[in-house]
Amino acid sequence: MVGVHIGLEGKVAIVTGGSRGIGEAIARAFVAHGARVVIASRKLDGVTATAEAIAGEHGTSNILPLAAHTGKEDECARLVRDAIGHFGKVDVLVNNAGTSLHFGPMVSAEGGAWDKMFEVNLKGYFWCAREVARHLSGRNAAGSIINVASVLGLMTSAMQGVYAMSKAAVISMTKTLALELGPSKIRVNAIAPGFVETRLASTVLKNESLLKGVVERTPLGRYGQPDEIAGGALYLASDAASFLTGHTLVIDGGLTIG
After folding, report:
1. Cβ 219 vs Cβ 254: under 8 Å
2. pTM score
3. Domain locations in the chain?
4. pLDDT value at position 1?
5. What pLDDT score was predicted for residue 110?
6. From CA 236, how far away is CA 94, in angstroms rounded?
7. How many CB atoms lie within 10 A of CB 120?
8. DSSP symbol at 24
9. Under a CB-based contact definition with an 8 Å cutoff, are residues 125 and 73 in contact?
């Protein structure tokens, strides 16, 4: 029996929203397992500080910070182009950049909040995926695209309905892209994190009642940490997941079964 090796040696990855939280944790895991990694965020200073910290920890220069607003199509294209220009290729894309601009009933959400959430959470994922898919197809190379969605895309979500809709759309897009890109040896999967301690979750973290409700509904009795999501991304990016596509990997402490 051949052993399974989960490693990313020789691979180049892009991680959007990589300056903190889940994106930072994924970038750290990828570098630790041999990948060369581009981390992107809207602000160059923040993503540069993260890249320097990761490089220092692992004694490597295999991490490149780039500024990119993934809610803009031209910046998504530039991000992929600059990553290829620096490292010569891209094998893995992690679409992780996200935003949540409305906490309250859906009927009270303003149009601007809808537009910005769908631009970053959905359109940006598509634009980056399209550019990486074109690059991989042009090289006739296998690759992995990973979309960070949310368990809120799988269940009802009072007070976060617009955000949840954008994540449900990400899961739908993942399945269709997996079907269409499969013949090109490009795998497309999603990760649906449960409640994880990140800046995006700060509204709930700061509300004792809401936080208690989430923890009580989670069989493991706690919320997650970004590192606990990174392991799933590492698996999906690696050749260990070579026969897995169109799947949504739920990492939620059991929240969706509670």
Report:
1. yes
2. 0.94
3. 12-257
4. 40
5. 93
6. 10
7. 23
8. H
9. no
Count of CB atoms situated within 10 Å of the CB of 116 = 16
* φ, ψ for residue 92, nearest 5 deg: -135, 135
For residue 28, the model assigns a pLDDT of 97
What is the rounded CA–CA span in Å between residue 70 and residue 118?
Answer: 11
Q: Which of 95, 146, 145 is nearest to 123 (CA)?
A: 95
Whole-number pLDDT of residue 117? 94
Q: Give all strands of the β-sheet with 36-41 in edge-to-edge order.
A: 63-67, 36-41, 12-16, 92-95, 143-148, 186-193, 248-251
Which numeric CATH code is attached to 12-257?
A: 3.40.50.720
Cα-Cα-Cα-Cα dihedral of 47, 51, 54, 56, to 10°? -130
Give the pLDDT of residue 227: 96
* Angle 199-204-205 from CA coordinates, rounded to 5°: 65
Instruction: Identify the pLDDT of residue 137.
Output: 98
Residues with catalytic roles: 163
d(CA 256, CA 35): 32
- Spell out the alpha helix ranges (H) of the chain: 21-32, 44-58, 73-87, 111-118, 124-139, 161-181, 202-205, 208-217, 227-237
Low pLDDT (below 50) residues in the chain? 1
